[in-house]
Amino acid sequence: MCETRLKKALSVAATTIGLSAAFWPLILWYLRRLTDGGDEPLGLAVLGLLALVIFKDRHLPRRPHLVAAAVCFLLYLISGFYLPPMLRSLPAIACLMFYFGYQNRPSCLALMLLSLPLVASLQFYLGYPMRLFSAEVSRWLVLPFVQEITREGTNLTAFGKVVGVDPPCSGVRILWMGLVVTNVIASLKRMPWHSTVLFNLLAMVLLLLTNSLRAALLFAPECGFLEISDTLHAATGLLCYLGAVIILIKVASWQSAVSRTRLVS
């Protein structure tokens, strides 16, 4: 029995070392992105959360799927000729998920994806559309109180005052942090694939609306109609974010209770 376990442990160790060597270019790329001055070091915090999630679920059964892992590994090798590191990391992550038997833990997959240096790319591709969305929803939220408000691009205008939804206020960072928390909650509740997907979609909608509500609440101070301290300005965004997290926790608890009731009945 001990000899069998030893052989299995050596086999896993040898394969892990081999995969680490194969993924070494990606590891170097990831380490370089950690020091480029962006928000990317936050990915390490996500990896820390992922480690805690895996440690908590270490006694749950896992079923490695070696054929799927081999296919993903082959795709990773082929992608090295055509794709940039960010996209090459997708088959590499899928390979690890199948090899270690975490393919039925969608929240772990989501946390691995969120640990990638995504924030700068999300700002580049989604920043402006999200600013437009926040500006338009904010206009509708403010409209019952200020009927003269208009929107042009990402700028809101009322009484000759112009307030812009600037790039730092796009909500990309709130969306990223919110999805990290969402998938930690999904992992703690051990949500299956379909529930995790729906839960993430709900979180995205809720976080987008949260950023719009924050912009609407800060419209009067930004226009100069109301003076608030910098602390209250920052606290407004934090309270909106915490409100969204509380709603997500309530929804996850409700979904978990419904699932238990169905199992009992």
TrEMBL record:
This protein's UniProt keywords: Cell membrane, Hydrolase, Membrane, Protease, Transmembrane, Transmembrane helix
Bilayer topology term: Multi-pass membrane protein
Keyword Transmembrane (UniProt): yes
Principal location listed in the UniProt entry: membrane
Transmembrane segments: 12-31, 37-55, 67-87, 107-128, 197-220, 232-252
GO molecular function: peptidase activity
Compartments, as annotated in UniProt: Cell membrane
One example of a Gene Ontology biological process annotation: proteolysis
InterPro entries: Exo/Archaeosortase_dom, Exosortase
GO cellular component terms attached to this protein's record: plasma membrane
Protein name per Swiss-Prot or TrEMBL: Archaeosortase/exosortase family protein
Native organism: Oceaniferula flava
Taxonomic classification: Bacteria, Pseudomonadati, Verrucomicrobiota, Verrucomicrobiia, Verrucomicrobiales
